[in-house]
Amino acid sequence: MGLIEDKALVEAALFVSGRPLSVKELSRALGIKSQDYLEKLIELIAAEYAERKSAIEVVRILGDKYVMQVRQEYSQRVIHLMPRPDLRTGELKTLALIAYLQPIEQSKLVKLRGSQTYEHVRKLLEMGLIYAEPYERTKLLGTTPKFAELYGFPENDPFIIKEAFRKVVHAEYADLIEKLEKGGMVSETE
Description:
Layout: H1 3-17, E1 21-22, H2 23-30, H3 35-51, E2 56-61, E3 65-70, H4 72-78, H5 89-101, E4 104-105, H6 106-113, H7 117-126, E5 130-135, E6 138-143, H8 145-150, H9 158-172, H10 174-183
Helix pairs in contact: 1-3, 5-7, 5-9, 9-10
């Protein structure tokens, strides 16, 4: 394929994924071997959106990941049009804990919520509401820009999100929070 087709393919991948994608992940999925070339394509796409002052932007987040998203100044005006995810109560509780305790190790979350957490995390990842990064022998979980947009946060700032979820989590899991704070399952940075 040529430059135009490659760029269109990368743009399509960023659009349909609805979540941050690493250059390595894009390379494997699209069959584009050169990660440098892939990064240049992403930069071209981002520059084109910026040049025409589009409501859509392509931004680098979480180190080497890229996401296509609605610019912040427009997201608040169209948030009511976004479809709400169809989540069951257990999945919502798992999502609330991830939002409040982020970044949290999946192994700690499983201790808190039980083995059904693995299925919840899988679904939340598929929906693009959380990210999972390898961390020692587990995964580190946190919220994504899609989560922030969907739930009306101005940005995916863990501090802002934690504060918003503080009341929800403390009301639902008062005993668990006490156990966490006394037992040290979650560090001060989490």
